[in-house]
Amino acid sequence: MFIELEPVFNNIGLSLDFDYQLDLSECEFAGSRPFTTPVRVKGRVRNSAGIVELSSEAVFTLSTRCDRCAVELERKFAVPVEHTLVTHLNHEDNDELILIDNFRFDLDPLVREDIFLSLPAKLLCREDCKGICPRCGRNLNEGPCSCEKPVDPRLAVLKQLLDN
Ligand SMILES: [Zn+2]
Ligand SMILES: [Zn+2]
């Protein structure tokens, strides 16, 4: 969504509210397209004492699969999108500062970037997910399978000694 920033930069105390939906259904993450419903982006741009602050939040649900056992899962996120908007940089090196080169500012790339930076590298159905048996494919969260457990090679030597 485009925000017309010129009035905000020119008027101390002015704030602009926004509340819209961002379609990320084409975006891939971890090999799938988990944004099956739109992201809701809600917040405001405000000029307080000459400093223009963007404060907003992106709320969305990811529909994906557990990284370990591949069961389907949905997880809700609320990612803060908060930056200070400036029309020129002095010599600060600050990730929070966003340089505006056009008063007609497109919020979407910034929201998208903040969302992707915040996503965990992998999602598990639960923290202690046991995954699937590599031999029979059973979901081990539902109980153990009847495959013989792989034996630690050091124990295998011991077992051999005992067997002889
Ligand atoms: Zn799992
Ligand atoms: Zn098994």
Describe this structure as you would to a colleague.
There is one protein chain. With 164 residues, the chain is α+β, with helices and mostly antiparallel strands. It has helices at 6-10, 108-118, 153-163; strands spanning 2-4, 15-22, 39-48, 51-65, 72-86, 97-99, 104-106. A five-stranded mixed beta sheet has the order 2-3-4-5-6. It has a two-stranded antiparallel ribbon with strand order 1-7. The termini are far apart. The model has no long low-confidence stretch (mean pLDDT 91). The structure holds zinc ion (2 copies). The site of one zinc ion has 6 residues, from loops.
Largest sheet: 5 strands, mixed
Structural class: alpha+beta
- Reading the helices and strands in chain order gives EHEEEEEEHH
Q: Helical segment tally?
A: 3
**Shape, principal axes of CA atoms:** elongated
> Per DSSP, what share of the residues sits in E-state strands of 2 or more residues?
25-35%
- Using DSSP, what is the number of strands? 7
Spans of at least 5 consecutive residues whose pLDDT stays below 50 are none
Oligomerization status of the protein chains: single chain
Number of domains: 2
Query: How far apart are the termini?
Result: 75 Å
Bound small-molecule species: zinc ion
Helix content: 10-25%
Strand order of the largest sheet: 2-3-4-5-6
Topology:
Elements lengths: L1 E3 L1 H5 L4 E8 L16 E10 L2 E15 L6 E15 L10 E3 L4 E3 L1 H11 L34 H11 L1
Parallel strand pairs: 5-6
Antiparallel strand pairs: 1-7, 2-3, 3-4, 4-5
The structure holds zinc ion (2 copies).
